[in-house]
Automatic annotation (TrEMBL):
Obligatory cofactor(s): [4Fe-4S] cluster
Organism of this sequence: Halomonas koreensis
Similarity comment text for this entry: Belongs to the anaerobic coproporphyrinogen-III oxidase family. HemW subfamily.
Record has Iron as a keyword: yes
A Pfam family hit: Radical_SAM
PANTHER family linked: COPROPORPHYRINIGEN III OXIDASE, RADICAL S-ADENOSYL METHIONINE DOMAIN-CONTAINING PROTEIN 1, MITOCHONDRIAL
NCBIfam families in UniProt: hemN_rel
Keyword Metal-binding: yes
First and last residue of the signal peptide: none
Protein name in UniProt: Heme chaperone HemW
Function field: Probably acts as a heme chaperone, transferring heme to an unknown acceptor. Binds one molecule of heme per monomer, possibly covalently. Binds 1 [4Fe-4S] cluster. The cluster is coordinated with 3 cysteines and an exchangeable S-adenosyl-L-methionine.
Superkingdom of source: Bacteria
Length: 391
């Protein structure tokens, strides 16, 4: 019997610094103020050392995508990324059409920096706009203005970027459906290839969770979502994930790899990775995470323990929920055969245990696919609870 085929491999790179921590942000980000200098050289060498330590896990597999997130990666210079990508290409084979994404904040850009990023080898930008309106941006603690966002998009196009994502939030303090749609219209007028449009949520361990702002009522949130979905689809951006819309051929390959339960290395302070390894029955999955605090991460360069802060093998009984939490975010779902390939569970068993989900209209009636219905996408937690009962 041949060994099971491992899924595609991606790389996530974390840059933990930002100018100021936003009150809604629960990511591993650390405000440094506007005038602080960052330890670019030290962090670059730490990232390369981190990657070198993880190379045996990759076993020479080809990388299909790289995503550089934060924090605010656009605080780092173009030279930083040129050297990082050069080191990466020297260590792992890269797909000919590899997607390399950099997150950028419109408030941290110097004139000409996007052109330098493009020359360094970055071919996709994700710009954190969130809103174009001053009251909403101030409520979110953002350091940029709507005009800064417009200027960032213009400079990205001038630099030659033809694959651009805009991050936009809705359900903001004081936001009406009219204001939310105005934000969408401003974004659509810029012609992005991809748009991430997601609702503000109050996450634990954030300033907003401790001191919550007044958010729109639930019926207003439903109106915003319904009207916004219609507006995006009419503009030619098809919804392919709960909060992601793209023009044909411009879906995020990196995020698709996550949602299809692909593998990924994670390097940088607090970065997480997921690796599949051949086991007696199918594949075993290991999750690992790196030292979280930037200063402690940098010290790990000279620590024989390396950069890994923790690791765990995902218990077999938890694989169904792990897989479903990702796959069911996709509007088109996944082939039922991929369920067995990733969880080791027979599709017949899953179908038997999802009778209740079908009765509630949470799943599409298709024996060949595991696919949430439009109602299932709205009530995904309820659907996942039923999946969890199959463990």
């Amino acid at each position: 019997m041949s060994a099971p085929r491992r899924p595609p491999l991606a790389l996530y790179v974390h840059v933990p610094w930002c100018v100021r921590k936003c009150p809604y942000c629960d990511f591993n980000s650390h405000g440094v103020g506007g005038g602080a200098s960052l330890p670019e050289d030290n962090y670059l060498q730490a990232l390369i050392g981190d990657l070198d330590a993880d190379l045996p896990l990759a076993a020479g597999r080809e990388l299909v995508s790289v995503f550089i997130g934060g924090g605010t990666p656009s605080l780092m210079s173009a030279d930083f990324y040129a050297r990082l990508l050069e080191a990466l290409a020297a260590r792992l084979p890269l797909a000919r059409d590899i997607e390399i994404t950099l997150e950028a904040n419109p408030g941290t850009l110097e004139r000409g920096r996007f052109a330098g990023y493009r020359r360094a080898g970055i071919n996709r930008l994700s710009i954190g706009v969130q809103s174009f309106q001053t009251p909403q941006l101030e409520a979110l603690g953002r350091i940029h203005s709507g005009d800064d966002a417009l200027a960032a998009v213009a400079e990205a196009r001038e630099a030659g970027f033809d694959n651009l994502n805009l991050d936009l939030m809705h359900g903001l303090p004081g936001q009406t459906p009219e204001l939310a749609l105005a934000d969408l219209d401003r974004a659509l007028a810029l012609g992005p290839e991809h748009l991430s449009w997601y609702q503000l949520t109050l996450e634990p361990n954030t300033a907003f969770h401790s001191d919550p702002p007044a958010l729109p009522r639930e019926e207003v949130l439903w109106d915003i979502q319904d009207l916004g979905h219609e507006r995006l689809e009419a503009a030619g951006l098809g919804r392919y994930e709960i909060s992601a819309y793209a023009r044909p051929g411009r879906r995020s390959r990196h995020n698709l790899n996550y949602w299809r339960f692909g593998d990924y290395l994670g390097i940088g302070a607090g970065a997480h990775g997921k690796l599949s390894q051949p086991a007696e029955q199918g594949l075993s999955i290991e999750r690992r995470w790196k030292t979280r605090q930037p200063e402690a991460y940098l010290r790990r360069r000279r620590d024989p323990r390396g950069f890994v802060a923790g690791r765990m093998l995902v218990p077999t009984e938890e694989l169904p929920l792990e897989f479903a939490m990702n796959a069911l975010r996709l509007v088109e779902g996944v082939p039922m055969a991929s369920w067995q390939a990733h969880t080791g569970r027979p599709p017949a068993e899953l179908l038997q245990r999802l009778v209740e989900a079908r009765k509630k209209g949470l799943l599409v009636e298709d024996a060949e696919r595991l696919q949430a219905s439009p109602r299932g996408l709205l009530f995904l937690n309820e659907l996942l609870a039923l999946i969890d009962e199959t463990g």
